[in-house]
Specification:
Helix 1 runs antiparallel to helix 9, helix 4 crosses helix 5 and helix 4 crosses helix 8. The chain is globular, with a radius of gyration of 20 Å. The protein has 2 domains: 103 residues, Aspartate Aminotransferase, domain 1, CATH 3.90.1150.10; 215 residues, Aspartate Aminotransferase, domain 2 (3-Layer(aba) Sandwich), CATH 3.40.640.10. The chain is built from 12 helices and 12 strands. Strand 9 and strand 10 form a beta hairpin. The chain is α/β, with parallel strands linked by helices. The longest helix has 24 residues. The chain binds pyridoxal-5'-phosphate. The site of pyridoxal-5'-phosphate has 13 residues, from helix 4.
Length: 337
């Protein structure tokens, strides 16, 4: 099998890093304090295997009972747990394409059959995906790398037409206007995963969390590593999640910047896909995606280019600070001239 290909992570400094959708702002001050003040015991001792304190904070923030919440070592771990639970040898695992390329890798690890459903021209979900029969369906909303948001009505229809489990990966949802979380009340086959990597600036600490019925959470707990989330990360994530004002502030700055960048790039002749995430998928003029990616790389500006038939014409740009976006736009302008 082929391994998942993460975006380039440079070992040395000096890069403008717009390739893996990290947050350009520091984490909430309370999260940094939690890391600085982590005592020797949180290093010496095993962490709480159930991450109860963190789950309680998540429960308060989202108004969901603790029994319906699970925490993980990044939301990637939650995806792995879900497939461990629901995708047996030979089972079908359905997901749209292009989407998060880890989905197929995780299905193959289980010996399950990944089944890709090609998104339509506007990156909408194809009809056949709704009626597909699968042990589990995975859908990222907002989707990566397209940025497309699938409305709560669309996800509801998917749940109504699916017998198996539906996992909605909401890694980027804080940059969008709509979550499918309210559907948890009506659909016991729904899992929603979230992450602290994007909107909470904690990618390096690896914290994700998920919501589902109590029955599913009990199952996920059975297949996770015993001490899956370390104590320092759990404490920092609890502080970050609790600081609602800070989270709102940095998220709205990124959304404003996303719209500003979309406008500047459109002015340079780019075609922009509507995005509810902290990145833009865009098609540079003149079929110059690869060329632009390489020339930006030479200037130590990292964006993502996917060498696949459907995406070859696009680049994906993570949203940074206004200053970073000005540097990027200027570099793009110079290269295209
Ligand atoms: C759609 C999607 N889901 C999940 C993740 C992983 O998030 P985490 O850092 O929580 O593992 C990413 C990361 O880029 C992503 O794009």
């Amino acid at each position: 099998m082929e391994a998942y290909q993460p975006g380039f992570q440079p070992k040395d400094g000096g890069y403008l890093k717009l390739n893996t959708n990290e947050n350009p702002y520091p984490p909430a001050p309370g999260a940094v304090t939690a890391v600085r003040e982590a005592g020797v015991d949180s290093i010496r001792l095993y962490p709480d295997p159930q991450s109860v304190r963190l789950r309680e904070v998540i429960g308060e923030v989202y108004g969901v009972p603790v029994e319906r919440i699970i925490a993980g070592n990044g939301s990637d771990e939650l995806l792995a747990m879900a497939l461990r639970c629901f995708a047996g040898e030979g089972d079908r695992v359905a997901f749209p394409a292009p989407s998060y390329s880890l989905f197929g890798v995780l299905a193959r690890i289980q010996g399950a059959k990944p089944e890709e459903y090609e998104l339509d021209a506007d990156f909408g979900l194809p009809e056949e995906f709704f009626s597909a029969r699968a042990a589990i369906k995975l859908v990222a909303s907002p989707n990566s790398p397209t940025g497309t948001v699938y409305s709560i009505e669309i996800i509801q229809r998917l749940l109504e037409e699916t017998e198996g489990v539906v996992l909605v990966d909401e890694a980027y949802v804080d940059f969008a206007e709509e979550s499918c979380l309210p559907l948890l009340l009506d659909f016991p086959n729904l899992i929603v995963t979230r992450t602290c990597s994007k909107s909470y600036s904690l990618a390096g600490l690896r914290v994700g969390y998920g919501f589902a019925s109590e029955e599913i959470i009990t199952g996920l707990m059975k297949v996770k590593d015993s001490y899956n989330l370390n104590a320092v990360s759990a404490a920092a994530a609890a502080a970050a999640l609790a600081d609602r004002d800070y989270a709102r502030e940095i998220t709205s700055r990124i959304v404003i910047e996303r719209e500003r960048l979309a406008e500047s790039l459109a002015g340079l002749g780019f075609k922009i896909s509507p995005s509810g995430a902290n990145f833009l998928l865009c098609r540079p003029p003149g079929g110059r995606a690869e060329d632009l990616y390489r020339k930006l790389f030479d200037r130590k500006i990292l964006v993502r280019w996917f060498d696949t038939p459907r995406l070859r014409e696009f680049i994906r740009i993570s949203i940074g600070t206004p200053e970073e976006m000005d540097i990027l736009t200027e570099a793009v302008r110079e290269i295209l001239e």
